[in-house]
Amino acid sequence: MEARFDLMANPLGAKIGKRFFATSLTLKESGLPATTLELMELRASQINGCAWCTNVHTEELAAAGESPVRINLVAAWRESTVYTDAERAALALTEEGTRIADAHTGVSDATWAQVREHYDDDQIAALIYLVAMINAANRLGVISRQLGGSYSHGMFTAK
User: Fold this and answer.
1) What residues does each domain of the chain span?
2) Using one digit for the tens of pLDDT, what is the confidence trace for 50-70?
3) CATH topology for 7-143?
């Protein structure tokens, strides 16, 4: 299997990609724990079947010192004991925000209450944008068939 299209090799794709990446960097400056952001991005990527993004966020979690148990159980976080209540609220928001087409109400009031309990307004703004951004990134990766397996931690920060 090969990638269909290299967005970064296309001048317009690269120009848009740089702005997209800049938004992602702003989210990383939000004050939310980096682990929470990566767990959310990993979970959305798993749901959306984006191999590239799943690879990226798995590698980033491992490089940050996350245990294999916490990384491997993200897909089954509801039945796991290794996540904090705040992480669980963020993961619920991620799942419900990602599965909008599957949910009759989008993000449930119960999930929203959990998010409000653990995060302030600035953090909630970042969480919402993160869910939107990772879902967009997943769609870019799936549509252009970006393959997983070649990412290594920090490969973009050196550029």
Assistant:
1) 7-143
2) 999 999 999 999 999 999 999
3) AhpD-like (1.20.1290)
